[in-house]
Amino acid sequence: DYRTLEERCARCAAWLRQLGVARGDRVAILLANRAAFLETVFAAARLGAVALPINTRLAAPELRQIFDDAEPRVLLYETELEERVERACAGMSGPPLRLAVGAAPDAYERTLAAHAPDFSVAPVTPDDPMILMYTSGTTGAPKGALLPHRKTLFNSLNAQLFFDCSGRDRVLVVVPLFHSFGLQILSIPALYAGASLVLQRHFDATALWQAVAEHDVTFFGGVPTMFRELLGALDARPDRAELVAKLRFAFTAGAAIPVELIHAFEARGVRLKQGFGQTETSILCCLDARDAIRKAGSVGKPVFHAELRVVRRDGIEGPTDAWRDVAIGETGEIVVRGPITMTGYWKRPEATAETLREDGWLRTGDLAKLDAEGF
Q1: CA angle, corner 42, sides to 39 and 44, nearest 5?
Q2: CA–CA gap between residue 102 and residue 34 (Å, rounded)
Q3: Which of 44, 55, 78, 298 is deepest in the core (most CB within 10 A)?
Q4: Mean pLDDT of 1-12
Q5: Whole-prediction pTM
């Protein structure tokens, strides 16, 4: 329950404070989907420190690259990843203090039990960093996007509007928490709204539908490749109609989903909503449930708490006041300004200047078209 979560976050904060973690220090989290991941994010935030989620699938050299760049003071990692962590830290002049999570007996649980809860919260400004999340590793060395406290709040407000999330919801999170989708779009907004969270460590289509049935899940999110498997697993269940009765919708993002898949789920009683965003901004667009079929294939309309434009790429390198909004049906680049944007890339002033303009407009690098209704 929330009282227990509050106490555990406060115990984790007390432990981090004892280790010397202070404002601006990075706390690395190399964990699967488990409560300790979220507890550490909130504990670091209470100290004014910065949570550093790391992809658990990275190889040792890739981990080392992030360790060298971000210089975390503390690292929590899955016990099964210990050998990989040791190889990544070998030879570092200042390796992070490390704690294994998930062993029996669990060192993390013993650590929490050994510390009295510290309920104090360090004051921060809206622009102070809360999360350092690495992104764009598919196109080169990953860059660390600095995500401030204001972004977490206003993204949660946007998600609450689009998902109509409340304390009555039970949200299943199977996409990884080290990714913006799992952490910033599903989990933190659900906690902000007072909903229940169901965390799954690995994606398995059969296990996901079983969790939906067992926990009365009201919505979950996934990427298009997951929904292909989910369709077959749903058809294999004899209780399909009963299973989806309490499911308000499913949310897909990360790539364009085929329109025929949207219609296939609709025919089985599951409303599939599509959205669009990126690590640097979280949710930018979402298709409301009432438009999910009528506008199938669209990522929807822009979020409430941000300005979003689609502009011509001609002269895009020039001043932003020279950008021209596209005509209906014309292709342009999505740019966004507002409280949901990152403050920049960690130690990358050139990349920051290229992406985030002086007047606050952030270039997403993604192309779109607008229709006559603003979708």
Answers
A1: 105
A2: 9
A3: 44
A4: 97
A5: 0.95
Neighbours of 92 (CB within 10 A): 12
Q: Is 94 exposed, middle or buried (0-12, 13-18, 19+ CB in 10 A)?
A: exposed
Q: pLDDT per residue over 154-182, tens digit each?
A: 999 999 999 999 999 999 999 999 999 99
At which residue do the structure tokens 């509050």 appear? 6
Residues 6 or more apart whose Cβ sits within 8 Å of residue 53 = 29, 37, 41, 131, 133, 177, 178, 179, 183
End-to-end CA distance of the chain: 39
Contact 25, 75 (CB under 8 A): no
Phi, psi of 63 (to 5 degrees): -60, -45
| pLDDT above 90 coverage of the chain, percent | 87
Reply yes or no on whether the pLDDT at 145 is more than 70: yes
CB-CB contact of 16 with 122 (8 Å): no
pLDDT higher than 80, residue 353 = yes
